[in-house]
What we know:
Layout: H1 17-29, E1 41-48, H2 55-60, E2 70-77, H3 84-90, E3 94-97, H4 102-112, E4 117-120, E5 125-127, H5 131-139, E6 148-157, E7 160-162, H6 163-176, E8 185-188, H7 189-195, H8 197-200, H9 205-213, E9 218-228, H10 237-252, H11 261-264
Parallel strand pairs: 1-2, 1-4, 2-3, 6-9
Antiparallel strand pairs: 4-8, 5-9, 6-7, 6-8
Amino acid sequence: MGNYILLPEQDFPGRNCKGLQAMWKQKAQTSDNGAAAECPSLGIVIPALDAGEDFPKILQSLQEATCLFDLDIVVVDGGSGDETVHHAQKARARVLETAPDPAAQIQAGLDIVFGDWLMILDAGTMLRPGWSTVVRAFVEQKGAERFAGYGKLAVREDGKIRREDGALSKLRNQFSGLPFLHQGFILHRGLLNRMGGVMALGGLDRMTIAGRVGHKHLIPLPFQAIQESERLPRVSWGARLSRVAGWLIFALLMVPPSAVADWTK
């Protein structure tokens, strides 16, 4: 797997869907995969709790997918005290209110969201324009139902991308085999059902899901998932480098990702 279509950022947003669809089909026809006749369905589940003032922009970044997918967005709110629910409703996402338990929120969203393909996304992640073309190309590849994909983490501070965090994330993904939810996690509903869903996996989010999918079936996709630095926990460079060293050791010892999930949280 690996022939992806990424349109230039200047093509988003502002292009009408017909123009975007025509551009995508033209590029798809020149690839090995071709263009699918039917529009695939994608359900996005966003567990949220006090998502903050950037949430409207984050929801807006998902709207380009309406051009290439039959799209359904479900925001599962855990009792926010801010405008999270209002912003979700204004963006025409479906809203489900539950207790503030991330695994339960994700499972509740997956239970009601429509779509053969599923994306689990952190409420603080903005997907860079063009992400939907990458995901569309991924889901249309032969055998994609057996794989899960995720984007490249980029951390933004004071309006600028911190390259070092993206590099550390890449190292961590490579050696631990476990992408974070705020990288955008995409898999087929059939694959999730075969694993029994989130709660049947015994706990939270990407740790258990990615671990069960298996490192060989996790595909890094060429789109950026951007997190604001203030939403991430503060970790010293010493602690970061210690973790990288740990991932290297685990990789050399061929320790399975599921065995180190707690350590990588």
